[in-house]
Amino acid sequence: MLGIKTKGNVISLEAGEDFVKPFTCVGIGDADGNVKYQDASTSVATAVIGVIQNSASDGEMVAVQLDGIALIEVQAAVSRGSRVHVASIDGRIDDSQDGTVGAVYLGIALEAATAKGQIISVLINCPAVAEDGGS
Questions:
Q1: Which residues contact 12 (CB under 8 A, 6 or more apart)?
Q2: DSSP state letter for 18
Q3: Residue 75 CB: number of other CB atoms within 10 A?
Q4: 13-36 pLDDT, tens digit each
Q5: Predicted TM-score of the model (pTM)
Q6: Any idea what DSSP says for residue 117?
Q7: CA neighbor of 127 nearest in space, from 46, 52, 70
């Protein structure tokens, strides 16, 4: 594991629920200025806004990385160079939709993962964008 990370742009937002551990994806929460775990994201209507950088309880401030190279926890094995998307209700990623036209992806995996729970470096592009079928 390379563990490469660059801060990119990071903003502080209020946690809209408990974030037990960092390095997972978040989306817009239920109130102005807060964020929640991003559910599996298969539509541009559920855009990922970033990756949390710290643990926080509901109502506390959490750092959200918007771009750059982020460390992100995986839901399943991921191939290096694949496009990744949010694959679970707690903001973890995988590459099962890579190449699927219309799938929403948030970045490119810079290293591989072999099992759920591993943390990899991902070049992120938030908010996430829809796959256009190109290479």
A1: 61, 62, 63, 64
A2: -
A3: 23
A4: 999 999 998 999 998 888 888 899
A5: 0.85
A6: T
A7: 46
